[in-house]
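ARCHIVE CARD
Drawer: 12
Card no.: 0347
Subject: one protein chain, sequence and derived structure
Cross-reference: see card 0346
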Amino acid sequence: MKSPASFKKAAAWALPYWTRGPAGRETPHDLFRVLYFGWLVAFTLKVLGSAWDVSWHFKWLRDDLAPPHLLNSVGTAIVVALTVIHGYTGYGVDKAALRLIQWGTGVFLVAVPLDLINHRINGLDITSWSPSHMMLYVGTFFMIAGVIRGWFMGAPPGRERTVVLGAFFTFFLENVHFPEQHQEYGILSLGAWDNKVVYAEQILLRFAADQMGRPVDRTMITGFTLPVPDALYPVYAVIVGLSVLVVARALIGRFGSATLVAATYVGFRTVIWPLLTFTGFPPSAVPFFLIAAGLLVDVAFLVRIPAARAVLGAVVVTAGAYGALMAQSAAMGPVYGWIKGQDGLLGAPPLVTATAVWAGLGLLVSWLAIEWIVSRRRPREAGEPAPRVTVAAPATT
């Protein structure tokens, strides 16, 4: 624990900055770093809580004060504090970044009580794709977008700028991919049921069955584990998830950026897999296909003409993502079966290959829009000073 002297020293450093000012005011270098490393801590806590939360809800009946919710709430408290600091002092953000952060945080905070009310009225929410849950994702989407813009506009060129920007994009990818975890957990829970293994507690299964008006049978388990159309998983992953990797590659500006963002997220999911599974929580499929897709995004950026890059990239990346999903379904089943002592568990949600055309067209539209926005509104070329979020040079001794 920190000593009282340390808290006094920190307060003495911070209090002089607590002055009202407009967004975009010149920000001391050390304050800028503290603010954005605070965002890293907040998002880390939120990701840890949300990762635990999905697994928790495939085992236990919902509880507002469940440990994952409490961990997530600590991250949310830091988010609110940072939003207030940015809004009051104007440090570390321009007007656009501040508005994104404020609106995102506001939507998130409105969604929390709405989600609680939804559960009070409707009982168990058997899908992560519900309206109240989507509001949480949308709020976090705008919140992280504002943080990315603030860091991108203000951080000085160098390794730290690149690494932290990649970290923020990893959090961004985690947020947009989060609802897909329902299918990733669901497909293995359904496979376990077929192998006479039940991960969920009986009180949860009974509650879900009563809500569906069915006995606890395979039809009910399917409705609980895979409540949305099979086409949604690959189409959403390609259009939304891979668009995040395209933006990451465009803004970070280095070959390998998209691959590293995808690999970091998948690496996190891989690390927490045994931590959750071997402590009694249900397993999930891990989206390894994102790494292959990220690599293909990086390769596509070797094409110098933006429109051609978008067209060729959408075709190649979509084909690669669907191919990797097919390979994952075939190859990962024996691995998961070996780990859990069962046979035939799928390593990826059901794949409707006919949807590849629509997913590819959606990614093409998104990629073309990204290329257009980046070419017309790029706020900062590599190596140039930030024009709107002015950060004072670090003090020298």
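Annotation on reverse: The radius of gyration is 22 Å. Residues 213 and 220 are 9 Å apart (CA to CA).
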